[in-house]
Amino acid sequence: YELRLTASDNLKENYTTVVIHVKDVNDNPPVFERPTYKTQITEEDDRTLPKRVLGVTATDGDKDRPQDIVYFLTGQGIDPDNPANSKFDINRTSGEIYVLKPLDRDQPNGRPQWRFTVFAQDEGGEGLVGYADVQVNLKDINDNAPTFPQGIYFGNVTENGTA
């Protein structure tokens, strides 16, 4: 902004210009391109792990400030205390999400869907935080043979009956 100031003693006037520079503060958290990201992968696909499953991007609306956004995950399949147990991870600078281990869809221990949250923090991980939800759906493969829960089945058939 520029202000023009005038000083006057009723006989003479003098002018000067004052320039004001407004410096932006970090008042806008990072914003993701969409509130929810969805993707589908095939269960138990252990080829080339870790495998990229999704890329997310957040932007910071603060002007003239560094855009050094850091990404991190929390939720199902994420173990921050022991990352070796995590099923998913994110590249902290690019926002690329990877599956680290084969995922099973079938019961008793499998699940058809994984849900977690991705966070973006500005100022290199020291500033404001934005978030989005991530949903990874598992496509089933025919990897289980049919079974008969009971060992033996009994039934009756009527002689000369219709089927």
UniProtKB/TrEMBL annotation:
Every Cadherin domain range? 1-32, 33-148
Query: Which biological process annotations from GO are given for this protein?
Result: cell migration; homophilic cell adhesion via plasma membrane adhesion molecules
Q: Which Pfam families match?
A: Cadherin
Q: Where in the cell is it found?
A: Membrane
InterPro entries listed in its UniProt record: Cadherin, Cadherin-like_dom, Cadherin-like_sf, Cadherin_CS
Keyword Manganese carried by entry: no
- Top-level taxon: Eukaryota
Signal peptide position in this chain?
Answer: none
Q: Which GO terms describe its cellular component?
A: catenin complex
Annotated keywords: Calcium, Membrane, Repeat
Molecular function per GO = beta-catenin binding; cadherin binding; calcium ion binding
Tell me the protein's name: Cadherin domain-containing protein
